[in-house]
Amino acid sequence: MAETAIPPRCPAPIAEDVTMTGEASQVVLSKQDLRAVTAFAAASAEVVLEIFEADQPDDSRPRDAISAARAFAGGGERGKSLRDTAAAALKAARSAHTAAAREAAWAAMSAAGAAYLHPLAKATQVKHILGASAYAARAAELVADDDRSVGAEHLKRMAHRATPVVVDVLKRFPTAPEGGGRVGELIRMLDADLRSLALTE
Question: What own/partner pairs with CB < 8 Å and gap ≥ 24 does 49-54 have?
Answer without folding.
Answer: 49/104, 49/108, 51/100, 51/101, 51/103, 51/104, 51/139, 51/140, 51/143, 52/92, 52/96, 52/101, 52/104, 52/105, 52/108, 52/139, 54/101
